[in-house]
Every structure is written in C-alpha cells, then in structure tokens.
Amino acid sequence: MLIGISPLISPGLLNTLYLMGHGDEIVLADAHFPGESHSTNVIRADGLKIASLLEAIAPLFILDQYVENPLIMMDAVEGDTLDPTVESTYLSAIRKSWPDTSLPERIERFAFYDRARAAFAIIMTGETAKYGNIILKKGVTPF
Questions:
Q1: CB 131 within 8 A of CB 106
Q2: In degrees rounded to 5, what are phi and psi of residue 135?
Q3: Which is the catalytic residue, given 5, 22, 65, 128?
Q4: For residue 111, what is the domain's CATH number?
Q5: Is the pTM of this model over 0.90?
Q6: Residue-range definition of the domain harbouring residue 40
Q7: Average pLDDT over residues 78-82
Q8: ∠ at Cα 100 (51, 124), nearest 5°?
Q9: Is 32 an annotated catalytic residue?
C-alpha cells in the first residue's frame, strides 16, 4: 500500500491513470456496460460504486481545463428518465477535490459507446445505477 492513495485504487488502475496523457479519456462503467466488447484495455473494479471510485481518483487526476465539458455521461434513451441523484452523487465525489467542476455533458447512448471505444481505458465497476457511466477527460497537471 502507498500512503495517500485510496485502497480502492488497484495497481492496474494507478498505472493506467499515470500512463494517460492530457486529453485522454477514461470510462467508469456500470456493471451492465459492454466494456469487453468496447475496449482491449479493461480494468476490473467489481463491487465498487462509481462515486467511491471517483472520490478516490479525483485527488490524483486533473480534469481537462481546456474543454467545455471534461465529464461526459450517457443521456436517457427516449421513454426512460434519469435519476438526478446519480449525477449529483458523482459531482459531490469529484468536487471534494475539484470544487469548481461543471456539470457533465449528456450525450446519446450510441455516441457514448463510440466515445468509450476511443477511450484510453474502461473501468468496469459494480455500479448498478441506470445510466451510471461517466467519462473523465484528463487535463494537464499544473505543477
């Protein structure tokens, strides 16, 4: 174990976060997401909720300051409704480290899948919230 790094961050996830460059994206996917069919770089975080993982990742990861929306979430399919507590819980977790973080951009389901295919990695979690997937775009470390 390392001091100051959450035990929720596996060695594989820590390495992935380190290897990512500015502008790279990482998907925190819910348990239902088709991660294995969308990427060859899939990290398992079974049993973990996305909000907890976001809280663990946020102190280690700066969001892209040069784009309007460094957070991207899937929009509801016609006929479905979003649970607003999912987004607010995620933002609360991120804002513990980055209080000025803006609301996520919502994109259509298949546009989200395309974005996930292009992502640096997909983290498969145990999240069960409907529309619980989120993409983070990494920024430039200001130090």
A1: no
A2: -110, 135
A3: 22
A4: 3.40.1650.10
A5: yes
A6: 19-137
A7: 95
A8: 25
A9: no
